Each structure stands twice: as structure tokens, then as C-alpha cells.
Amino acid sequence: MSSNVTERPDEKRGDWRPAREAAPSVMREDQPRLTRLVGLAGLFLVSLALIGLLLKVSGGRTWIGPVWTTLLIVTGLTTMLFHAVCEKEHQVRRLYGMFGYLWLVAGLVLPLFPVEGKIGAFFGPGLLCQGVGLLFLLAFVRNETEGSWRDASVRVLLGVGALLALAGLIGGSVKAEFLIPQGVLLAILGLAYLWAFVSVRGIGSDIGYRVGRAIGLVGALVFLVALGRSVFPQLFWSFGWVGPPRPEKYLTDSEKVPAGLLLMGLGALYMYVSVLLTSDRRLIVMHRRELASLFYSPIVYFVLLGITIGAYWFFLVFISRILDPQGQPAVEPIVSEYLIQWWPIICLIFFVPVLTMRMLSEEKRTGTLEVLLTAPVSEATTVLSKFFASLALFLLIWTPFGLFLAALRYWGGQPFDYRPLLSFSVALALTGSMFLSMGLFFSSLTRNQIISAVLTFAGMLTLTLIFFVKFMIQGRGPMGLPGAESIWVGVIKHVSYIDLWIDSVQGRLIPKFLFFPISATIVWLFMTVKVLEARRWS
């Protein structure tokens, strides 16, 4: 039987051989040369600052002052931390891990080192060392692939966090003088360590979920204990169950340290972090998503860096004014001279548009808003999650001002009236809510971030200029109407947030002046929800 298959011309050649197989070329990862150069530069800056400090401590002449020393150390550690986060080589990352452990050990030992028979003289430097150790350990854990090294570091985070949190909360509850500033700072830093542990372990693990819940339980216990110590002694004394003298007010005691309110605030902060980490409700999940997306953006870190540098400069000016022998002596509340300045207000006008311009404009530009609106989440939940995330970041940005005041209390050695800070914090939170809700509304109107930022900036500038309108109409009644001056001045005082800040930092928090920021916040959020609803049906 004949076949129609014919041989290919190549197959008739007797010297044909298949091609030799060759292994693929060796693949090598790109070396992070730029980040290593940045890390070396940071190490050089830190070494230069430490040499200057050692010369100053030993009594020799040094070429660097305290301001430049601080700047060099902060810049050097920041660049080294950037290298530690990006480095993948196991030997280098473990070097950074050991570096983090050294900072942690130094932070735990320094407060216990006695100076002239007194323990705790180096509490401030020790706390800073513990914070730096936390950052470098987190960078190490992020890149470490070997399970034993990673698990050991994670357990260290849990142990140190629990130790610091219990020391701050229990010590502050037992002794009110320890609460400011040692107890508050220890409790906050301990919470940061515990948050880092839960974030690394994840809520999906049993230990991570239990620690997250334990944080909330500890916060609730501290809140209830502080509330009970603030209310029940006074109540029992009013009933005649407790004899004279009258019990000391724990809520706002006479030592100018509002121990009860501070402990209740710490308890509420612990509960907030616990709910944020462990809750699966839609609003909380969306809030957690928005908060994480804010910190994924480099804009936030630039804003934090700028505010921290500005707060440090304001603090130095404030200290020089207090220590000026030819100046007038500082009178209470001295915090008003530090907080009520024009530069913080100018910074506020600029960074509020920066925080809010991307919230909904970016969602529109990238097309993720349509996906979000088709999810089983209401428009109100979407708006509130973005609003609360921006509000949490807004309050965090103001934290450096409070930390510098805590440093003033620690190194100054003299107590001052902290209670105006409480009323100022309430006014700051309410006015910040008004600013952010306005920025969120303008962000919902357009997909262009620049337009959103410009509209928010114009709104912030208008709210700021209202303060000056009051001085323009004083001394004459508009349109020649008798008595119109006092009426319009009163209206402007209700609207001006600067007047509210000035009153609150003096310890005066009048409820009628809080009505405008609260109502404005509600109106802006309502209009934002309506804009999203109109987009769904358009």
C-alpha cells in the first residue's frame, strides 16, 4: 500500500541533530544601591551627631549645637529606617534587627540608670530609644523570611507592649503625679507596640484576635475605674456617707493634673484601637480601609514631617520667650502662648486641602467609586468612613504639639495648668470636623484633585478671614443702623473658629459657640451623601 507521506528535506540529511539544551542564565536581583547609599549617609549623620554629644558630655569643645544635633539625628535615623524597610539582603536586614534591639535595650535600661541616687532621670531619652527600636523592629519583621527570627521579634513586641501599657496605666492610676507625663507616654507607646503586634500577626490568628480584644477590655476597665473614682467619692460625700473633709476631685484635681479625664481618654483610645482592629462591622471595616489608604500615601508623611518641624520651631520660640530674663513672666494658662499663633493657623489652611483633595476625587478618577457604590455599602457609610479616617489623621497631626508640652513638663520640673488643653482639644476636634467635611464635599464634586484642593483652600481662607471682619465693623454700625455693630460682632464670634480657639485655650468652652461647627459638619456631610446618591442614579 503506497503512502502519501513524504520526507522533509532536512530529514534526508544524516548529520541532523537536535539543538543542545542550555540552562537559563543566572538571574540576580537588582542591588538596592541607592537605598544603601541613603542608609550610609544616615549612619554618617547619626555618627556625627553622637560624636558631638560625647564631646559635650565629656566637657570638650563641640562644633554642633543642640538644634543641629537633633536635626542630624532625626534625619539620619529617618534615612536609615528608609533603607531598613527597602533592604532585602538577609545579613543587612538582620544587622538592622540587631540595631533595633540595641535601641530597645537602651530605652529599657536608661530610665533605670540612677543619677545622684535618683532613678528616672533619663526617662525622656529612654522613651525616644524605645520608639526608635519599635520602628526598626517593624522594618526587620517586614522583610524577615526565617520563621524563628520573625516569631522571636514578634513576641518581643508583645512583651514590651504589655509591659509599657501596664506600667503607664497602673502607675498613672496609683499616683497622679506619675501620670503626667510618664504614665501617658508609656501607655501610648505600649499601645503602639501592641498595635504593631496585632498588625503583624493578623486578626486571622487566634493570638492576634485575642490580644486585640484584650486591648479593648483593658481600655474599658481603665475607663470605668477612672469614672468611678471621679464620681462615687463626691457622690458618697454629698449623701453624707463619707465624712469631712471633702474628697479630692479626681476628675480635675487640684494639682492641675486632670487625672480622671486623662485616664478616661486613654481608656477610650484603647477601646477605639481594639474596635478598629477586631470589628467586622461595615462602617469600621470601611474606616479601617480608608485610614490605611491615607497612610499608604507619601503626602501624609510629608505633612507629618512638616508639622513636627514647625511644632519644634514654635516650641523653641516659646521656650526662649519664657526664659527671657528681660521679658514679662509667663502667666497661666501658658499653653495659650504656644498654641494660639499665626503659623499653626496658616499651616492649617494649607494642609486641610492636602488631606481631603484625594478622598473622593481620586476614587472618581480611577473608577473605583463605581465599584464602591455597587458594593453592599450605603453612601452614608462611605462618606462617614472617609470622614472619620480623615478626622483621626487630623488629630494625629496635632500630636507633636502635645508631646512637646509633655517634654516641657518633664524637663522643666514645674507643673502648669493642663486643663485648658482639654477644652482646646474639644474645640479643635469640632472645628476640624467642620473643615474636613467641607473638604470632603468639594472632593465629591469633581474628579480633579487640584480643583478640589483650590475650593477647600478658598473655604478655609474665608473661614479665617471672618475673624478680621469683626475688627472692621467694630466702631461703626453697618448701614448706619444703631446697635447693628454688637449684633454682627456676636454673629461673627459664633462663626469664627479662631475666636473659639482663643476662648477654649483660656479654659472657656461655651456651648452656644459650639453650635456652628457641629451644624456645619452635619450639613456638609449631608450634602456629600446627596452628591453620591445623585451620581448613583445619574
What does this protein look like?
The structure is a single chain. The chain has 538 residues and is mainly alpha-helical. Helix content is 74%, strand content 1%. It is built from 21 helices and two strands. The chain has helices at residues 33-57, 66-86, 90-109, 123-143, 147-174, 176-201, 206-239, 259-278, 282-296, 298-323, 335-339, 342-356, 361-366, 368-374, 379-397, 399-412, 419-445, 449-473, 484-495, 497-505, 515-537; strands spanning 114-115, 118-119. A two-stranded antiparallel ribbon has the order 1-2. Strand 1 and strand 2 (118-119) form a beta hairpin. The longest helix has 34 residues, at 206-239. The model is unreliable at 476-484 (pLDDT under 50).
